[in-house]
Amino acid sequence: MDVDDDEDPFGAFGRFGFNGLSRGPRRAPEPLYPRRKVQDPPVVHELRVSLEEIYHGSTKRMKITRRRLNPDGRTVRTEDKILHIVIKRGWKEGTKITFPKEGDATPDNIPADIVFVLKDKPHAHFRRDGTNVLYSALISLKEALCGCTVNIPTIDGRVIALPCNDVIKPGTVKRLRGEGLPFPKVPTQRGDLIVEFKVRFPDRLTPQTRQILKQHLPCS
Q: What does UniProt give as the signal peptide span (predicted)?
């Protein structure tokens, strides 16, 4: 069996062999007492999803090519099928979506289950921590000492102006409540957007600036 994803819309999500049939010698005579069929082990594949897809929910389509038994129960045919994978809002990384008995079929087996396991795609701005989302904000030393307003992006495309009136130290954290990912069991509620501050220090200072800082900055 082969699997394609919907990026193209059925582009190269990757092709995977599921119980490929080999054309061997002629079939042996049927035994007096046929063997009991055993289901093949599950075929597991990683399904990468973006934080936006987790935030809004989405449906991915996978085209699979697999072998199925003909009505005579002996010969097989190759057929395509589209699997619709519904990703619900807030689902956690590691969530499994199972399609029972969609693997290759032969006269001697029970088709394997196909299992997709969610894996978060790396994001340009955010990191996930459960239902919380982490964002690193880089500010200058001047902004850290004198105050500033930082524009914080959200997963749904908005921008929140975050005023910072206190001194911001490296590693300072501020929390925007309810701006994270939906809770899987209660999608109307969301986690938080956690802003972690990084302070950019100047590479060098002029002698005049050093003297001013010595005069005005506290010693402790």
A: none
